[in-house]
Amino acid sequence: MKSQRPALPPSARSLRRAIEILGWVTVSILVITGLVAIFDRAGFLTSASNMDFTDPIATFNPFDGRYVQFSLSSWAHLITGLIIFTLGPLQFMPSIRRKSISLHRWSGRIWLSAGSLAAISGGFIGIFQPFMGVDGQGFNESMATTFFAVYTLFCLAKAYSTIRARNVRAHREWMVRSWALMLAIATERIMLAILMATTDIGVPVLFGTTFWMAGLVNLAASEIWINLTRSPGSGHRHWKDLDAVSAA
Fold first, then answer.
1. Residue 99 has pLDDT above 50, yes or no
2. Cβ within 8 Å of residue 66, ≥6 positions away
3. Which of 23, 68, 134, 226 is the most exposed place for a label (fewest CB within 10 A)?
């Protein structure tokens, strides 16, 4: 007989639903922040492409100039980022998976592919061209980019391999980790803005530091949520369905 997790008491189910609502509000804020950043950067690159210059770093600044210098990687990162932030929320809506499994699967394949390309293109810029240089404060940014780009690719690979093995529970958990890592760029922008407004620490120090902070905070949040919503067995029954059965 398959072991089943004991039914949660009503207070625990209520707490989980409350955390879910808070989580979706947070995700909505991060998605909007990410989309604003994407369109802002796309507008900058479009404007820059209509200008005449020989040295993008000297024409703009070390931070903006590197995106112009590596425009192909920048556009790849922005386009895949738009796909990630648009399709991301859909991957975690059980109603879509129940009503249209084909849509869930195809959007998931696109999302995984976009996430992989985004990690590679963003990693290329952040690792090899941190705006403060690899031998200065930029080394912190370069190391953070290396770690999170590699770990994102690992999470995406695990998400793919586990669903191929029909392990829905593990697939969902690796997808949650992947999504949390991809949202970290928006978390980093918010942290950076807050710290720039409230401290006298310069952007060269803050940029790499907030990158680490955002990635670790998002990963910690994802692990907490995974442990709160882990389903028994292979995870074919969603935690919401189990809660509904317990409440009946």
1. yes
2. 56, 57, 125, 129, 131
3. 134
